């Protein structure tokens, strides 16, 4: 017996494969739709336009869309004339000076004495810390205002009287040279 070579073809067991030309014939054709136009046709600007048969359009004659306005244009620019309006020189709103809310000197003094930030800064100064920047400005401003208020209220005289009670301060103020030597300047 002679040997037979195996083939890869399966034979007639499956569906037959149609060639592309036959498949195209069997397909249903697509519906042909009109393409939407995106504007006017080319050359429409120069085409003759059909005029309306309205009575008002007949007496003007055929209108060409290429012609523009017939209004004359000035070749020299003329300054625009604006009507002179007299300005109202009186102010509409009345201005008044800002009124600072009135705190009495005693109330302001109490506020400064109760200021926690100032007390913290004062403790830092007593601990020989050097204040810088905003802290130094705040400390200086508040202490200066405190001195002004004390003078205004007359409380600085009590501080002077307290110094007079200090014997060491009295001793330093006395010029012993004058009393011992009897010199007078």
UniProtKB/TrEMBL annotation:
The keyword Secreted does not apply. One of its GO terms (molecular function) is GTPase activator activity. GO terms for biological process: ribosome biogenesis. It comes from the Bacteria. Residues 22-35 have a biased composition (Basic and acidic residues). Signal peptide: none annotated. Residues 1-76 are annotated as: Disordered. It holds the Pfam family YihI. The keyword DNA damage does not apply. Keywords: GTPase activation, Ribosome biogenesis. Interacts with Der. Belongs to the YihI family. A GTPase-activating protein (GAP) that modifies Der/EngA GTPase function. May play a role in ribosome biogenesis. NCBIfam families: PRK05244.1-1. This is Der GTPase-activating protein YihI. It comes from Arsukibacterium tuosuense. The gene is yihI.
């Amino acid at each position: 017996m002679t040997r037979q070579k195996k083939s890869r073809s399966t034979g007639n067991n499956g569906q037959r494969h149609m060639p592309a030309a036959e498949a195209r014939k069997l397909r249903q054709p697509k519906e042909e739709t009109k393409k939407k136009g995106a504007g006017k046709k080319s050359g429409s600007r120069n085409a003759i336009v059909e005029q309306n048969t309205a009575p008002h359009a007949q007496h003007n004659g055929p209108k060409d869309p290429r012609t523009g306005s017939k209004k004359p244009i000035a070749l020299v620019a003329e300054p625009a004339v604006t009507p002179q309006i007299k300005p109202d020189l009186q102010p509409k709103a009345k201005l008044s000076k800002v009124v600072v809310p009135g705190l009495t000197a005693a109330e302001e003094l109490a506020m400064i004495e109760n200021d926690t930030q100032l007390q913290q800064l004062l403790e830092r100064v007593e601990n020989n810390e050097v204040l810088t920047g905003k802290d130094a400005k705040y400390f200086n401003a508040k202490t200066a205002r405190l001195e002004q208020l004390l003078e205004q209220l007359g409380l600085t005289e009590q501080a002077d009287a307290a110094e007079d009670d200090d014997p060491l301060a009295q001793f330093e103020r006395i010029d012993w040279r004058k009393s011992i030597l009897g010199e007078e300047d």
